[in-house]
Specification:
about 120 residues; mainly beta; seven-stranded mixed beta sheet; four-stranded antiparallel beta sheet; about 0% helix
């Protein structure tokens, strides 16, 4: 099972980006999916989370600007980021709780990360 992210890039302050993350492999079911980011510091912080039935939670820094959504049929999660600021610059990682394989093993899977740079 792997997660593949896309959609990162460079944008000016006030701009928008949409990140995507697709899970693939021998998947029985994908439960919670989330986005995390790691900026200059060592800590990787949770940005937003979405449960399989659509319940969401956001970091205070993301509330009102970012929207997480998912397509269960495609095992894909999205992060729409609006009004981006320089402090949003980070590598963004996708995470998913995946029931995988014929024996339905519960796995926590991370994507490889996608860089978002906000700069004028």
């Amino acid at each position: 099972v792997q997660l593949v992210e896309s959609g990162g890039g460079s944008v000016q302050p006030g701009g928008s980006l949409r990140l995507s993350c697709a899970a693939s492999g021998s998947i029985f079911r994908v439960d919670a999916m989330s986005w995390h980011r790691q900026g200059q510091g060592p800590q990787r912080e949770l940005v937003a989370l979405i449960t399989r039935d659509g319940g969401t939670d956001y970091a205070d820094s993301a509330k009102g600007r970012f929207t997480i959504s998912r397509d269960n049929a495609k095992n894909t999660v999205y992060l729409q980021m609006n009004r981006l600021q320089p402090e949003d610059t980070a590598v963004y990682y996708c995470n998913a709780d995946v029931w995988a394989g014929t024996d339905r093993t519960d796995l926590e899977v991370w994507g490889q990360g996608t860089l978002v740079t906000v700069s004028s």
